[in-house]
Structure formats: C-alpha cells, structure tokens
Amino acid sequence: MALSQSFYIENRKKLAEQLENNSLAILFSGREIAMTEDANYPFFANNNFYYLTGIREPEVVLVAIKDHHGDLSWQLFIEAADPLKEKWVGKKITCVEAKAVSGIDEVSYIKELPQAIGLKSSSQFLYFDFKSPQHQSFKTEDQELQKALKQCEIKDLHPILAAMRLIKTPEEICAITRANAITRQGIEEMKFLIKPGTYEYELAAFFEYFVKKKGSEGVAFETIVAAGKNATVLHYVSNRCPLKAGELVLLDLGARVEGYCGDISRTFAINGEMTTDQEKLYRIVDAVQQEMISAYRPGAVLKELQNLTKELFLEKCCRAGFAPENNDITEFYYHGIGHPLGLDTHDVRPAGDLILAPGMVMTVEPGLYLEKRGLGIRIEDDVVITDSGCEVL
Ligand code: GLY
Ligand code: MN
Ligand code: MN
C-alpha cells in the first residue's frame, strides 16, 4: 500500500525548492542484511526515501540533479530483473511500476548510475541523508564516480526532510488515524485474554494477528505487553511472563498503515478490578493526560509541556500520599510526555526546542512507574495539533 502519487511528487517539489543550485542529492532505499546463512532480516526501506518516492524495495537509488539555473530533474535507478532469483523470492519492482508509484518519469537500471551521475559530477554540492543507518546509505564501488563525488561540497538532507516530515498532510493524518483505529479495535478485542494465567506473549500474538487481519501492514513497533513490575521497563518487549491476579498489565502497541504508525498505551487490572491504591494512581495518570491534552496547542514548547507534566504529577502524587513533598518525581516518571509520530514511531524532528504547530501529530503519554509496588501505568493517545489546540486521533 502507498499514499497517492501526488503526495510523493509534492514532497519532492518541497525538497527541491530547498536544494542549492548546481547540486546533486542521492538517497538510497537500503540493502538487505543477512540474518543467517540463508535468510535476511525483514527488509525495511529508508523512511526518507519512501517519503519521496512511495517505493519500499531494496537497492533503489533516487537522484535529484539541480543545475546552475535551478532546473531540477529526478531519476530512479532500480535493479535489473534476475529470472533465477525471481524463482526464489519473486519479482522485483519494474521500471513501469516504479514510475507509476513515484511519478518519476526517468527510471533506469542501477548499472547506469555511475555514468548518469558522473556526467553531472561538476555539481558544486552533494546532498546525502547523514542520519540514515549504514545499510540505507548510498555507497558506490565505482572509482570514477567516487573521484567525481569527492570534489563536491557535502551537505546534509536530514534537517530539511525532518522539518518537512514534522508537519503532516491530511493524507498522512488519515493513515495515522486508520492505524490508530485498528490499534484501538485490537485492544478492545484482546480484552478477553486479560486474565490470570494468560502469558504476555499470548496478548502480543493476538494483537499482531488482529492488526494484520484488519488489513494493516502489521505492527509499527515491537508490541509491549508488560505485567506487574515488568511495566517499569519502558520498552519491555520480551513478553514472556504470566499475568497474575492483583497486578496490572500495561499494553503499548500500534498498527502500521501505509508506512504510518499508531501508538497507543492502555493499562488494565488483570483480574478486572484495581485495588484502591492502583485505582488512585491510575486516576492520577488519567487526570494528567487530560490536562496535558488541553495544554497541547500551537506555540506550546515540548520542553515546557514536560515540566508541566512533572509539576502535575508531583502535586497529585504528594496530595495522594505516594510521594513526599520534596520528591523528585523523575523517580516515578522517567520519560518524555510525548514525541512526534509518523513514519517512525519516534518520528524525525529538527534539532532544538520543539514548538507545536498545526499539522504536527504528537503522542500524549504520561506514566507512573512504582517498582516497589510492582506496577507501571501509562496512558497514551495521539493528537494532531489544530489551529486552536489539538484533536485526539
Ligand atoms: N511505543 C513507544 C513509545 O510510546 O514511545
Ligand atoms: Mn509513544
Ligand atoms: Mn507507545
């Protein structure tokens, strides 16, 4: 599944406007990584590459060439078909398909890349995505091309793309909304399994089955099902313990739709009823989440929202007798209130203070973690910033 071709065309247009004249930009979808002698890890294409092309196949290169007049052309380079390999792993993307998904007219085979770029090697600037992992970074064995590219001044594409990806289009918000709708439904449907004796992995497996059955691409990140004190480990993914009566279970999970992530957390009593203290703590987290949702609005600074969350937690936990007056609440609340959400669960963002603006999609996820009481409570929802506040997705 992919978003519409016009989405990728528009993204490339916005990027092109920000490139220097007389420049080259090169992005790579990524190469497969061997996991064992005869199997690779599941392939995941570079998200910046996907955002500009809609293509999620390995070994595809995207090149932008902007001449000294500011005229720009885009080219894709794909692998040629290998009939023998096709019998084992299926067909690769063709030139016609690559063009149809991306809207890029010039699609060639990768063996033509050195010459195609070499011809433009007089470019002054060369843009790469500095933050892409090594296996998603462009490399060439071609000596002539290496020599030519070495003469360029190297620039980073990442800050430009991070700023673009931070503000979502209605189409992206729609994909996140669908991911969340499936995630939410998955949580509703898995409630019947929340009882003493069920193993954490049974809940995780049910969720993963459910989201695929509903037509999503699968999970957006490793599903967290954390019973009892396991929930004090924020990204607990081993999911191997049994659920016990009297404890809570924290679920942090999300489906992925068209590349976009859902990210929801809920906390339930394993035998259906919380103890008085569990309920008091739960209500504190719930109240803080409601107050923070009202505080998410254009102009709010994420760092200040985090300080406000800590103040609210400290005040409420002291009042309820869970923390002494002068306690540093970071003993019980030790993560951020939220993060941008998009193609990455912790989505890209430009460096520096994050100031909320319309079109950003953010999580709101306060949590309390009391190891001595053997519990962690997190409630997480995702919001889109609007002109006057935010809307829960
Ligand atoms: N699911 C990871 C997070 O909420 O940050
Ligand atoms: Mn999150
Ligand atoms: Mn989460």
> How many structural domains can be distinguished in the coordinates?
2
What's the architecture of the largest domain in CATH terms?
Alpha-Beta Complex
Return the average pLDDT rounded to an integer. 95
Structural class: alpha+beta
Count of helical regions: 11
Classify the fold: give the CATH topology of the largest domain: Creatine Amidinohydrolase
Bound compounds: glycine, manganese (II) ion
CATH homologous superfamily label of the largest domain: Creatinase/methionine aminopeptidase superfamily
User: What's the CATH class of the largest domain, please?
Assistant: Alpha Beta
- Overall geometry comes to globular
How big is the Rg? 24 Å
How would you summarize the topology of this molecule?
Elements: H1 5-17, E1 23-28, E2 34-36, E3 39-40, H2 47-53, E4 61-66, E5 72-78, H3 83-89, H4 95-102, E6 106-109, H5 113-118, E7 125-128, H6 143-150, E8 153-156, H7 158-166, H8 170-190, H9 200-213, E9 224-227, E10 248-253, E11 256-257, E12 260-261, E13 264-269, H10 276-295, H11 302-319, E14 361-364, E15 367-370, E16 375-378, E17 381-385, E18 390-392
Parallel strand pairs: 1-7, 5-6, 7-8
Antiparallel strand pairs: 1-4, 2-3, 4-5, 9-10, 10-13, 11-12, 14-17, 15-16, 17-18
The structure holds glycine and manganese (II) ion (2 copies).
The site of one manganese (II) ion (MN) has 4 residues, from loops.
Gist of the model:
This protein is α+β, with helices and mostly antiparallel strands.
Structure write-up:
The structure is a single chain. This protein is of the alpha+beta class and 393 residues long. It folds into 2 domains: 5-165, Creatine Amidinohydrolase, Chain A, domain 1 (3-Layer(aba) Sandwich), CATH 3.40.350.10; 167-392, Creatine Amidinohydrolase (Alpha-Beta Complex). Helices cover 33% and strands 19% of the residues. The protein has a 6-stranded mixed β-sheet. Strands 9-10-13 form a 3-stranded antiparallel β-sheet, with helices on one face. Helix 10 packs antiparallel against helix 11 (302-319). The mean pLDDT is 95. It binds glycine and manganese (II) ion (2 copies). One manganese (II) ion binds next to loops.
